[in-house]
Amino acid sequence: MRMALSVLVALVLVLVFGALFAGADENFARIADAVVPELDFETLFRSTFLFFPFALMGLGAAFTALRPPRLDPPEGERQTLRGPEWAVPIGVLVALFALFIVVQAASLFGGPQHVRDSAGLTFSAYARSGFWQLTLVTILTLPVIAAAARWAPKRTRAERNLLRGLAGALAVLTLVIVGSALARMSAYQDAYGYTVLRLLVMTCEIWLGVVYAMIIAAGVRLRASWLPTAVLATTVGALLALAAVNPEGVVAGANVTRFEQTGKIDPDYLVTLTADALPEIHRLPDEIEQPIVLDITDRTGEEDWRSWNLTDHLTRP
């Protein structure tokens, strides 16, 4: 029964992550369409509302009769799963991650060149079609690894090595996917410009990559008592770093540099920034700079103590 549940968990993981990967890459989607059978309404109804409930009730009743549950385990005993019970879902997920990386290897780190070489593919489609799905994959993998670390047995060296191997492989493959998401967003920004939101999203992706690197480090000795504190410290550090670098100034500077290289600029976005962006905006030609500066300075004239900002105060006419 426990192995049956393990296989069921593996199937659920494949469905969830497989659907995300299919939405992120057309080649992988074609493979998924070829593998997954088409189900009509009658078949779906029969399997969902007839077979599974009665099969589970029958198996549950038989299992309960043959092996009544122990409701009060001995004090201090920690419940774990047997090796195959947790290794099957994680192993299947590792194989799925590896298959996705192999299938879309060309687009994984192809960046601008891959977009230019692919007929009908735009930078917008390249970034948007996969970035959010890959980000969600990165986030969902964290509780999967945490569950494996919690429930996997670690009594023998073989059990510990199995946990290190599977969980470590999943973390390493996820790091590759983090790199893919960052490459997609970088290509998108090079083509369409930089925004504060895109900078924040990329920062979150980089932070997730750091978290996975720490998970890999913790898995070497299977000691993670320091990990929660380290994750919190990196979170605070990322927030302080963002405040120190002035996100709006960084974004404005990147857009101005892009204008100097390509002649492309989005004044409608720049006017939405605050006075923190003005030092970089002053690098623009006068005919572009002056309307943007006027719009920004006009907005800084009305403020009360709750929205007071030093940069706005110093640049107020």
From TrEMBL:
The chain crosses the membrane at residues 44-66, 86-110, 130-149, 161-183, 195-219, 226-245. Keywords: Membrane, Transmembrane, Transmembrane helix. This is DUF4173 domain-containing protein. It comes from Saccharopolyspora rhizosphaerae. The lineage of its organism: Bacteria, Bacillati, Actinomycetota, Actinomycetes, Pseudonocardiales.
